[in-house]
Protein 1
Amino acid sequence: MEYSQAQTDTYLSSIKASMPKIIEENKLSNSSFLNNHLIHWAEPLNLLELLVSECINIGSKYSLERKPDKEPSYATHIGLLVRLHGKACAIANEILFLLKNGFPDAAQARWRSLHEINVTLYFIAKHGIPCSERFLAHGIIDSYKLMKSHKNYEHRLQEKGPSQKESEEIQNLYNETIKKYGADFKK
């Protein structure tokens, strides 16, 4: 055991001594890779960046110029669509960052998330206010389940769960949601 500890200590000392050189070599290698990568993929990456930028700008402009809606359920519906659009833009930006930095597999994984959000957005937009209300109500079900799980594993998580008041509020919202949509809604 002493031998392996001595070997470990020797190895760690050696690594620490050569750390600046290793890091500098890695930076040069990464820099060279990124330069070549960006030169090779400049045109499609620039087009993607333009598309993402325009999506963000259009969404921002719409949000800023949006007039208050007289019908609360319509305002909630549009608000949900705007939030989903914002989430899609954030993920598109992540994809752009990953592609620019040479991580195509990670970008593809985020692209699947982007697709999922866009399908959800399209479905909710197509089916209107009742669909928005159900989508948001299901968020209450998810919050309730998360709260219960957190309460059950507080000791493992080493983090306090919601307060008694917060738990009661979530419980009340949950009960109202089940009352409105039925017991099958909690599945």
Protein 2
Amino acid sequence: MLKSKKRVTMLLDKGIGLRSQRDLLDTAAPYITQVKIGWGIGNVLPEEILKEKIALYREVGIIVSPGGTALEKAILEDKIDQFSLWLRESGFDAVEVSNGVVKLDEDEKCDLIRDFNKKGFIVLSEVGSKDPLRDHSISIKDRVEATRAELDAGSQKVIVEAREGGKGIGFFDKSGSVISHKISEFLECVDWRDIIFEAPLKNQQVFFIKKIGVDVNLGNIAHDEILSLETLRRGLRGDTLKISG
């Protein structure tokens, strides 16, 4: 279960080939906690490739979910039951519940979290919108209330939206710089251990490690940045040399 992990490093798999995936696992598997197969990529991969991809991760104890967009597509098409079956048949052990695009109120979102828990999946949820204007209109108070509600409903971790690029969304400005006062305000009201901060850029990773510590949960890490992040956590790069973990 994800809650038992010391810290989370969530890899964003954008459809890397199986050979590259095997190479990645040979060198970096111990440093990957969870994989998100981004967006709806799992829906366009050949079925057998997807199943093998998931199996390779799970063989080494890595949790695997599709991106939240895959579920949002199922919501739009009223195909939740078919989506649940696809999750199970493909081999996913986790699911991400988000409302980054679709209109889904908090009660409906929490109902989905409870439903997927009952079906035996590890459930993560995501707070935030993929639309920058809509996302920046979400107050810290609303983010905190959503986070608490989703944890109470059974989400094991709540992901803070930052998308693949980490710019102009969530707690980052258009250049990808951290809006530190917003993070400080958010962290006054939630336990950081319950949060996965999407932080695809190095400066963001450095910020969170310095502010929270080496065990901060970080997500949307590119496959070729896993070892780089681990060195940051361990104080093996100049940016965090005085920190060790």
Protein 3
Amino acid sequence: ARRTAASMRERLSADFWTLLVNLESELTEGAQAPLSEAEALQQVESALQILAALAGLAQENMNRVAGWRFLDLGRRIERGVNTCRITRTFAHDGATPDDLDLLLDLADSQITYRARYLVGLALTPVRDMVMLDPFNTRSLAFQVVTLKDHLAALPSLLADGMLEEPNKILLPLATEVETTDAQNLTPPRMQAFERTLLRLSGAIADRYFLQGAHAVPTVKLGGLA
């Protein structure tokens, strides 16, 4: 990450660069010697705090131009894929209360769940909150809504008004997520959502970025002579 950032150092604020250096230092330090379980957990927590700070700076300080949209598109797709994976793992048909509790932790949805549901942990409500709730910022549904907004704001090169490939992939997914009942949200269906998001990622890359021999090499911007 730091090598990538170095190629565009002049576009990064001092605070952003400092956080990147701190993150590299945090991760490098742990790689030099074996860590105990407690030390590894502490390192992960420290890295997550730095990553949260980086995300906050990007959210608050980046101009809302195409670059920001592509950055957030990547974040939303990645979060959606991860949400599908952890939900398939911990909210399967035979999930225990401990499984569901861990899922809510991983999805940062413990407080929201406890505030909404007075009963204890149950499979269907947990699946609904983590996957289908459009008001939960960590849910799959929220990521899909945000992806729709970003794609709608990007330029279209088709003059005939026909949908381009990213939208052809995303819109059916959005409809299915909006109309799916949590009771019918089986692990195979979650995996299908995940695969669709990965297809969407490839379609966005193919549509908006030059690939292979047509790619434009990155050039470091210099100052005025």
